[in-house]
Amino acid sequence: MVTDDKPIATRDGHTIYVVEFGDGATARVASKKPLAPGQFMNLTPPHPDDLPEQPAYDCDGVVADYLIVDV
To answer: DSSP characters for 8-69?
Structure first.
């Protein structure tokens, strides 16, 4: 679920949001479309612990764990 933490706008057109999972884990999500606090997300993989060992997405110097292509 998207938290009410203040989103971070980047110069490349993305906005970084914080998403909280049911167990309290959090991840940063980059999206070019607006997301609303409380909005549920279907992310792949469904938990940040399951992310592969790869670099996160760099959005104009701000790192995100997930990149939303279409909402």
So the answer is: EE-TTS-EEEEEE-TTS-EEEEEESS---TT-----SSSSGGG--SSPPEEETTEEESEEES
Full-model pTM: 0.88
Q: Looking at this protein, which amino acid is placed at residue 2? A: V
Q: Residue type at 41?
A: M
- Return the SS3 of 71: coil
The mean pLDDT of 38-67, rounded to a whole number, is: 89
CA 48 – CA 36 distance, rounded (Å): 20
In the chain, the amino acid numbered 49 is D
